[in-house]
Amino acid sequence: FGLQEVSSLEQKPEKLPPQYEYQSIHQFENTPFSSWDEYTATVIKDSANVTFEEINLLNVYARPLVTRLINENFFKIFRLNLYKECPFWSNSQGFCMHKSCAVDTIDDWKNLPDIWQPETLGRIEGLMHDPPTTNGSCIATGIKSTKDYCEIDEINDETVYVNLVENPERFTGYGGDQSFQIWQSIYNENCFNLGSEQCLEKNFFYRLVSGMHTSISTHLTNEYLDLKTKEYGPDLRQFMARVGDFPDRLENLYMNYILVAKALIKLEQAGVLDRLRFCDGDFQSQESQLKSSLKKLVEPFCELGDTSRCLFNENTLFQSDGAGQLKEEFRERFVNVSRVMDCVHCDRCRLWGKVQITGYGTALKILFELDNHDSLSEDFQISKIELIALVNTFDRLSKSVASINNFKQLYDKAMAAEEDGTTTSVSEDTFGITSAPVAKDIKFPVGRTGPGLGDIFMEELNNVWEALCFLYRSYKLFPKIVYNWVLIRLVYYWNTFVGHVHEDFDVNRLYRLEL
Ligand SMILES: Cc1cc2nc3c(=O)[nH]c(=O)nc-3n(C[C@H](O)[C@H](O)[C@H](O)COP(=O)(O)OP(=O)(O)OC[C@H]3O[C@@H](n4cnc5c(N)ncnc54)[C@H](O)[C@@H]3O)c2cc1C
């Protein structure tokens, strides 16, 4: 299943990808979209008899709940290292110059919610690990007894905090050989050493990665940049060329949806959710509200399909001879995929890549390391980064499913317009290939035409304006910087005076962080 896709990745495309060529919507005739009712009535492969349609319907219920959750202060901040070097190859010289690749980090840690304060304070005082906690006082924990399925960035000088809501996942322009190399190396992690009989787990690994790829492609085509209007919006042709035309890619995305939902359900059923304690401060009062929102979100999912197995039966995997070794290899390879994220040149893509790979890694950890009926679940550890990533990954999948249903409506409209021979606005795309209203049978030149002189002039003018704004903001910030500098010095001298300086305390590093 799907393995030809992997091998086809080994050859680089000789011509531009098909989405840059003009395609009539009629060329997407034999896709799941052309027989949507039939397609969505079928059972999702490897699920517990759950159909696409059932997920589509329940997602209508889940969408507002998960949207509310990820907008909560607790779930919207993510901590990561954006500057880590790629551990796999040295020619990681590429970088994304486009401003949509940038990430707005929270530079003043005092603006972070209370829950992050202990660790930022620890960072400043030279404590380079998560604050130690006793079980039950705070869900951030530095001591982990459970095996991890992904690498989580440790806290150090390069740690940044990001508001996910203010840095949405969307089209950035990142592509070409650089992103191709990343995807290729991710799919290459699917080459297990244990022989062909472990086909089940191999397929599962491939489908997981492909489902994540599908979700990323869905988001970037759902929020695609229109160079003319400078607005982000759905681009049907891009979507069809990357996702809509591939039934297997669609199915892999729905499998990931089920997988992450099942992990959330299991977290609740094993009692781990109840045991989680949020840090003191803002969140303690919200704790029970956030927990009951999470429970309410996943509650109806177990009533789908074969209820005794609930969405997906993880116990069918890793059952054959040598399963232990296979599971270990699977885990190590997934950890490698998470490390590949440090090779992504576009910061915005790296951010969302890390959020999602951490979310999937957490889901795998819950599915394969947490036993519902075992007292071991008492020892199961989950950090706040993992919980935040898990919920945000579920949101990504939920938004993907909602977007797919929206694209289906756009597809029907475009088809109807083409049938009538009338024009349709959904067929316009970013690169101006089809920038005139599209009428049936008109073929536009193949290739990627750049923006005009006027666009370039306006873009440059905009850059100059932004540079001036930056200078103005810097002057405005100057008194605050001086104030912070004096305050830090005074605190330092006071601590020295009362003999209370931590041995690793480095005032110069503190200046760097503050400035
Ligand atoms: C971790 C990561 C995050 C990214 N995030 C963003 C982002 O937020 N915004 C953005 O604009 N770009 C993002 N990108 C880039 C984006 O994914 C594409 O690589 C880029 O748009 C170029 O697309 P493409 O058409 O060349 O094919 P790609 O999407 O790069 O795919 C390469 C090849 O993989 C195969 N393939 C494609 N989809 C699947 C699938 N679902 N399952 C199996 N095989 C498949 C096809 O053979 C295809 O030719 C990200 C890339 C990575 C690696």
Indicate the percent of residues in helices. 40-55%
* Largest sheet: number of strands, sense, barrel closure: 2 strands, antiparallel
Lateral arrangement of strands in the main beta sheet: 1-2
Termini gap: 53 Å
User: What compounds are bound to the protein?
Assistant: flavin-adenine dinucleotide
- Give the uncertain stretches in residue-range form: 1-16, 124-143, 426-450, 511-515
* Integer tally of domains: 2
Mean pLDDT: 79
Radius of gyration from the CA trace?
25 Å
Order of helices and strands: HHHHEHEHHEEHHHHHHHHH
Number of contiguous helices: 16
Q: Got a strand count? A: 4
Structural class: mainly alpha
- How much of the sequence lies in strands comes to under 5%
Describe this structure in words.
51% of the residues lie in helices and 3% in strands. It has 515 residues and is mostly helical. Strand 3 and strand 4 form a beta hairpin. The strands form two sheets. A two-stranded antiparallel ribbon has the order 1-2. It folds into two domains: 3-418, no CATH class; 452-515, no CATH class. It contains 16 helices and four strands. Flavin-adenine dinucleotide (FAD) is lined by residues 5, 8-9, 17, 19, 169, 171-172, 174-175, 179-180, 182-183, 210, 213-214, 216-217, 220, 242, 249, 341, 344, 348-349, 352-353. This is Endoplasmic oxidoreductin-1. Its main location: endoplasmic reticulum. Keywords: Disulfide bond, Electron transport, Endoplasmic reticulum, FAD, Flavoprotein, Glycoprotein, Membrane, Oxidoreductase, Redox-active center, Signal, Transport. InterPro entries: Ero1, ERO1-like_sf. Disulfide bonds join 96-101, 138-150, 346-349.
